[in-house]
Write a structure and sequence with these properties.
The structure is a homotetramer.
Chain A: H1 13-26, H2 39-46, H3 50-62, E1 66-69, E2 73-76, H4 85-106, H5 110-129, H6 134-137
Antiparallel strand pairs in A: 1-2
Helix pairs in contact in A: 1-3, 2-3
Chain A binds a DNA duplex (15 and 15 nucleotides) through helix 3.
DNA sequence: GTGGTCTAGACCACT
DNA sequence: GTGGTCTAGACCACC
């Protein structure tokens, strides 16, 4: 699979996994209805505890990104949107504030960040629309 | 003052602080020999526990990025590395990709994120300019 | 504390706890800002594992009913509403369907259930408005 | 047919089924000697695994509520207890209190819940009446 | 064999 | 001493 864990990073393992799974789905590498690796598969592959994977999948299910079916597996949700406009704005604002903070510390102009954001966004969109040339864009 | 803690982020407070201080030094905004805020200043300003700040400074000193001088304060070490523009862009690109991922999952347009980014950036800038009585400019 | 776990019940321990904590808050026995028992307290008192309590508190935080502060404790949230209208309706409809199902099986008219619902609702509301006579209404 | 499974509920499928069958018998809707649906019927109708139904019937037989006759089917046991009106109200009151609790946390008026309750009740009734070709009336 | 609950206990982040 | 992450492993519900 596609996940890399950096245990040296202070970011919790489960948070790293969530970010990367979200990315994989956003990029179209995994599409609605697709089955994700089983809890045990991911756990053994990443040499982490199954409970950690379980937590990740639980959180993703809470966010409406995947749905679990006992005895069957975990699947990418059919595009269900869960958060309302207000919550979305709040979440996004948090993220943007963090990014703005980094711009300041790195001494990079926000317009450059905006360019990069747009570029990355369209990369993701393009790769999710074309099922074939995924590998180029990762 | 430029440090902003995002409690919504899963990243621990101390890690956020370290990253931001490192970046500020890496960008050249803080130069070798510059004095950092005292433990007490930072703690009261960010409304966090002094022990947390102490830990951050201890860790930074351990990494050779700052050096403590008893009774004087904490200073940026002489050997502190400054990243070039390319390195900084690479770091920023990672963050922008994460943000783009969130945009897709939240179903929000990138232009909205760009607006928010700009808004948050200027908010941060304004708040740092208006606090002229800060003892230093970290 | 106020929680009773029935291990004979097929309902998971964590679900029983959530229901009862929600009830305690809804009834006003616990008010916004009040501190809940610590993870370890609840765990030892109910002779269950701290992780189970942690899961309960985590879920409640997800639902916006409590907020956690590291090193301080867990507190009843200040009345934050998280779900949007659509999600609320969905959740409530599920609950009503379950209740309707029980009415049918028990051979009780829905109007009787409606009466009981109204009665219980006002009991909760009354007990949350009057801080003094709580014990009577439990 | 009267059994409805609510997958959103944390209560396991088999437990929901057992409760509903017990209640139907307790209310006198199903009387001693009445025949229950076959395992296969119930499984296909509720789109669940036959093993789950098998387990439910096995458990009910173990509790002495039904008796299996090879080649004939499953029947309500002669000694099955019928609850009086008061017992049934007590059960229902518990559920109504839970629903009232949810109303408060969701910030929804009880009258809205009452509407939904009525709506769901009639939906269930209609669906059970329209399925005349069901082999029995559980 | 799949996801999910629960236990037991180590270790970390923060006050 | 607080909540939170992670591990290790048993057992259950469901397919």
């Amino acid at each position: 699979m596609f996940i890399k864990i950096n245990t040296a990073d202070a970011t919790p393992v489960y948070a790293q996994m969530m970010q990367q799974i979200k990315y994989t789905i956003a990029s179209g590498t995994l599409k609605p209805g697709d089955r994700l690796p089983t809890v045990r598969e991911l756990a053994t592959q990443l040499t982490i505890n199954p409970n950690t994977v379980l937590k990740v999948y639980g959180e993703l299910e809470h966010e409406g990104i995947v749905t679990a079916h006992k005895g069957k597996g975990i699947f990418v949700a059919e595009g269900a949107r869960v958060l309302n406009q207000q919550d979305r704005e709040k979440l996004l604002t948090d993220r943007c504030r963090s990014l703005a903070t980094e711009c300041i510390h790195l001494g990079v102009s926000p317009s450059r960040a905006q360019e990069l954001l747009e570029k990355e966004y369209h990369k993701l969109k393009d790769s999710s629309n074309s099922s074939k040339s995924d590998s180029n864009n990762l």
